[in-house]
Amino acid sequence: MQQRFDESVQHLVDAGAEIVEVSCPSFTYALATYYLILPSEASSNLAKFDAMRYGLRVPPEDIDDPSAEQVMAATRDAGFGDEVKRRIILGTYALSSGYYDAYYGSAQKVRRLISDEFTAAFEKADVLVSPTAPTTAFKLGDKLDDPMAMYLNDIATIPANLAGIPGMSLPSGLAPEDGLPVGFQILAPAMQDQRLYAVGAALEARLLHAWGAPLLASAPDLTAVAKGTSR
Amino acid sequence: MTQATTDATLSYDEALAAYDPVMGLEVHVELGTKTKMFCGCATTFGAEPNSQVCPVCLGLPGALPVVNEKGVEGAIRIGLALNCEIAQWCRFARKNYFYPDMPKNFQTSQYDEPISYDGWLDVELEDGTVYRVEIERAHMEEDTGKSLHVGGSTGRIHGATHSLVDYNRAGIPLIEIVTKPMVGAGERAPEIARAYVATLRDLIKALGVSDVKMEQGSMRCDVNLSLMPKGSNTFGTRSETKNVNSLRSVERAVRYEIQRHAAVLQSGGAVTQETRHWHEDTGITTAGREKSDAEDYRYFPEPDLVPIAPSRESVEALRATLPEPPAARRKRLQSAWGYSDLEMRDVVNAGLVELIDETVTAGASPAGARKWWSGEIARRANGEGTDVPSYAAQLGVTPAHVVELESLVTAGRLNDSMARQVWEGVLGGEGAPTAVADARGLELVQDTGALDAAVEKVIAANADVAQKVRDGKVQAAGALIGQVMKEMKGQADAAAVRELILAKLT
């Protein structure tokens, strides 16, 4: 992974980029911040799925003549998956009276620090780059029992979401250790999306030239893989 | 829970002897914007259910709100009229709770950052006393849909087999105006509550931002009330009586809650913190939901809307659009028109201020304008169950008609009783005053010969009365005047007749 990242950085240097390192210490808390703000907002956003106006409606099995609230509860229990329920419960808790300041309120303060650190960083650099994720993709369903590991995979992309700035991810080749694609992330200040396209296009052109073909050409034949596993 | 029990009450005088009421009023006003607060749907009252809805106000997934600029302007103008500070920067907040008539299951409202705060409104009571009501805040929010509970006998949710929801009202802009606790009102608390709501209603109507019709729900009032023992400064537990939706009910609800709280406290009990329902027919409140299992609304800033940051220039521009406050305007007009307090109060209560103002502006005398708009036409309007301005509009009777009628009198063509007949004709749809007078052949007799003859005839026929006048009993001339008028079939100027009689006899 590191190798692919370093290569892409070298391509940008070859294209004329100047590399500087920046420090954003609050990014350490980005994940924790995000997983308080996101579930809080989600708990409220998802409240509209209440079986009243559209979508699923599941009457509770064990109640005759159920109230609207009982129908809402049974429908939401049947319709939402585990991860969604987890986020609704976390978010409801984080917004609750007595916990708001410690959780949602603190998270919003850290969010501001992260945003400020981006602003400072963009005074030194036109764009920021990093790997898109700390590891290559894990197998489908592999981390279902370990939500923390799943959340950790978002660590590089989440600061941009918190700060409200644009980002782009480009395939930068396959990791030598497992042969899976590695993403290269480019971030720009708010309303400066065109910088992403300028840097992304320059990098893509050089990568294509180096590979001699698009990365997709080196992807395994999925039908063959599928047949292989079903046998 | 099924059957509301009637609570004990203490007499009002006993209650006030032992306790001081603390009162807070929350008034919701629906703004009369053409479209809803966060979408472009129409806001027409009484439209076919669910005909004024869209993905935003129905809470469909993926729909995003956009703030209605006119709604914000209306909120700021109300804030300014209530002498409030206007926030430099504020946000909407989500108030989260599940209810079928609320499409998103959160109400977009404001929480700790209201658009206006720290204001006041001076309220004049019947006897002229002015009470200053401190305003805590006036914030923006959206209305909910309307539930109709079907299948029960009461129309309430209890006992209903199912409910229908009309989302036309969902998303209509609301301003919630909250007073600070009113302390020291004493026995006048009910009167002050009523006067406050009435003054607020007039003020908002004058601003033109809402039709403030309590009977249609475009203005709704909640009454918070608690008692503290005389001499104490610690507020008691409060009750919140919801939807007290007429001026008279506001006054009655405050009075009733004072009496009910006093009975609870007097018997050594504790007042329950709860929502109460107001019953217009019986004049009592009954327990609603208890608030002790304090609902947690999980307020947080609305992430889908940008903050509202009105520039100071825009606020000042809106301040410049504020009309003269109704109370000040009434004072100014009363003095200009020379009405007594009683006359002015009658005119205000009958809703005649605008009409009289227009009529005086059009050239009538203030006394004439008041006389013609509050006599026969008021009797008729009342019979039709409406007010004079609406009735006049319906008949097509205008201030110009009053001016014309008055000018016929001052020009000497009509006397008062003839003018009344002409006015009846105008109200009866016979046309403008001159046309009615022509058609009915109403005109004072200018022929002095005919008048002179009539006077001579009456004097001759009533020699005894004539003698009394000759002897100095001038008031006896009245009987003669009446006879002459009769002789002239009413078409004579009574003052001229009187002059003529006195000239002949004294």
Automatic annotation (TrEMBL), chain B:
Catalytic activity: L-glutamyl-tRNA(Gln) + L-glutamine + ATP + H2O = L-glutaminyl-tRNA(Gln) + L-glutamate + ADP + phosphate + H(+); L-aspartyl-tRNA(Asn) + L-glutamine + ATP + H2O = L-asparaginyl-tRNA(Asn) + L-glutamate + ADP + phosphate + 2 H(+)
Gene Ontology biological-process entries: glutaminyl-tRNAGln biosynthesis via transamidation; translation
Keyword Nucleotide-binding: yes
Record GO terms (molecular function): asparaginyl-tRNA synthase (glutamine-hydrolyzing) activity; ATP binding; glutaminyl-tRNA synthase (glutamine-hydrolyzing) activity; transferase activity
Domain of life, per lineage: Bacteria
Key words of the record: ATP-binding, Ligase, Nucleotide-binding, Protein biosynthesis, Transferase
Coiled coil start-end: none
A Pfam family hit: GatB_N
Gene3D superfamilies: 1.10.10.410
EC number: 6.3.5.-
Occurrences of domain Asn/Gln amidotransferase (ranges): 354-505
Protein task: Allows the formation of correctly charged Asn-tRNA(Asn) or Gln-tRNA(Gln) through the transamidation of misacylated Asp-tRNA(Asn) or Glu-tRNA(Gln) in organisms which lack either or both of asparaginyl-tRNA or glutaminyl-tRNA synthetases. The reaction takes place in the presence of glutamine and ATP through an activated phospho-Asp-tRNA(Asn) or phospho-Glu-tRNA(Gln).
Subunit text: Heterotrimer of A, B and C subunits.
Protein family (similarity comment): Belongs to the GatB/GatE family. GatB subfamily.
Designated name of the protein: Aspartyl/glutamyl-tRNA(Asn/Gln) amidotransferase subunit B
